[in-house]
Design goal:
By secondary structure, the chain is of the alpha/beta class. It has a domain of 172 residues: Carbamate kinase, CATH 3.40.1160. Helices cover 33% and strands 24% of the residues. The protein has 11 helices and 20 strands. The strands form 5 sheets. An 8-stranded mixed β-sheet has the order 3-6-2-1-9-11-12-10, with helices on both faces. A hairpin with a 6-residue loop joins β15 and β16. The chain is globular. It starts with a strand and ends in a 22-residue tail after the last helix. The protein binds aspartic acid (ASP) and magnesium ion. Magnesium ion binds next to loops.
């Protein structure tokens, strides 16, 4: 008997009809002789709606209370999905993250899973139950509920798959798999059959909203092979797995655009040792994820220091950095929210040269100005003006020949001569 962990995202369980359909699919998996643990997201836009509601009563809601609020979305959907399973005659039981034995650290809003005790899940599986776990949450050392960051149900699923040593971890979505680019932006984008953990990790942290990056990190660390597939149709999706040599054949696997970033600039910073360390120490202490960093060449011992942060963290960044402005004798602090980060990713970059050059040239040909650049072994990111992001992604997708036309893998050997009819 195989053990499946199946995770269903918010749009796959958006209403009663969706719930019934998903329940049927889960039931079919169970009837085929498998044990099933389901992880479910909040229905539709519930999480967004709850955040809006909270901000209507308090523009900067307390983080503990935000967690208590947001966790309810997943609790509701797990109970409703379980009821739908009961209606089909299935034996099923819902659990909160806490009941499922998920322990997290003390950081609210982006807690990390520290330990899972799957005793209760195991017990119910052994009794023949389908176990439906509320995603995105766990219990912290203070015995409070904490959430895992947006998209965190993915991480719940992967972590449970690792803890239960599941045979499969399937992430079922309203898309067919992982695409070369967002199909809503690039009509020619195509579904990938497979992608390496590293690539998925870079894409996820570069704004591709397919999987939460922490989920991929977890999968990589524990060797959990992920399958991203459609929740609407039964057909193969994309496998996320360890890279192999064949994967390097393709130079670029995917392109992502992240519009949820803001650029902070510390103006007129004295160019002396220790300044940057102080700035970034404080940001780290406040749990603010700094991504790109650029320091200008200093003129007369004064420099500008720019870095990007998640748009949601702008207020927090202000609070952390503003008191420092005086202390380090900088001239001021500036925020720019109208930026986008566009990234190209592929393990093939390790063995191919000239990729950065080509990217910059394509952007130049399209008169798109690059404001910041950062690279890793398998990724090149640029910051550009936000309204130009979609155009940039389309142009790059085209220039790197990633579209549907490139669907056929390059022929390994010469094709056999065609017989004439
Ligand atoms: N409901 C949460 C969110 O929308 C978690 C998830 O969907 O994975 O971010
Ligand atoms: Mg959601």
């Amino acid at each position: 008997m195989a053990l499946y962990v199946q995770k269903y995202g918010g749009s796959s369980v958006a209403d009663a009809a969706c719930m019934r359909r998903v329940a049927q699919r889960i039931y079919d998996t169970r009837q085929a002789g498998n044990q099933v643990v389901v992880v479910v997201s909040a229905m539709g836009d519930t999480t967004d709606d709850l955040i809006v509601l909270a901000k209507q009563v308090n523009p900067e809601p307390n983080e503990r209370e935000m967690d208590s609020l947001m966790a309810t979305g997943e609790m509701a959907s797990s109970a409703i999905l379980t009821m739908a399973l009961h209606a089909l005659g299935a034996r099923a039981i819902s659990m909160t993250g806490h009941q499922a034995g998920i322990k997290v650290d003390g950081t609210h809003l982006k807690a990390k899973i520290q330990e899972i005790n799957p005793k209760r899940i195991r017990h119910h599986l052994d009794q023949g139950f389908i176990v439906v776990v509320a995603g995105f949450q766990g219990m912290n050392p203070a015995e409070d509920v904490a959430t895992l960051g947006r998209g965190g149900s993915d991480t719940t699923a992967v972590a449970l798959a690792a803890a239960l040593k599941a045979d499969r971890c399937q992430i079922l979505k309203d898309v067919d798999g992982v695409f070369t680019a967002n199909p809503r932006v690039v009509p020619a984008a195509r579904k990938l059959d497979e992608i390496a953990y590293e690539e998925m990790l870079e894409l996820a942290s570069c704004g591709a909203e397919v999987l939460q990056s922490r989920a991929v990190e977890f999968a990589k660390n524990y060797g959990v092979v992920l399958e991203v597939l459609s929740s609407f149709e039964v057909k193969p999706g994309t496998l996320v797995r360890e890279e192999d040599e064949a994967m390097e054949q393709m130079i670029i696997r995917g392109i992502a655009a992240d519009k949820n970033q803001a650029k902070a600039t510390l103006l007129g910073v004295p160019d002396t040792p220790g300044v940057a360390a102080r700035v970034f120490k404080n940001l780290a202490a406040a749990n603010i994820n700094v991504d790109m960093i650029v320091q200008n060449v200093s003129a007369a011992g004064i420099t500008d220091l720019s870095f990007t942060v998640p748009a949601d963290d702008v207020a927090k960044t202000k609070r952390v950095i503003e008191p420092l402005v005086k202390e380090i004798k900088a001239a001021g602090l500036d925020f720019d929210g109208a930026i986008a980060k566009v990234s190209i990713v592929g393990v093939g970059m390790k063995s191919h040269s000239g990729v950065a050059y080509k990217m910059f040239e394509v952007l130049a040909e399209n008169r798109i100005n690059i404001e910041m650049i950062s690279t890793s072994e398998i990724k090149i990111s640029v910051v550009i003006r936000a309204p130009e992001a979609d155009r940039a992604v389309r142009a790059l997708h085209d220039a790197f020949d990633m579209g549907a036309a490139a669907r056929q893998p390059p022929a390994r050997k010469k094709p056999a001569p065609q017989k004439k009819k």
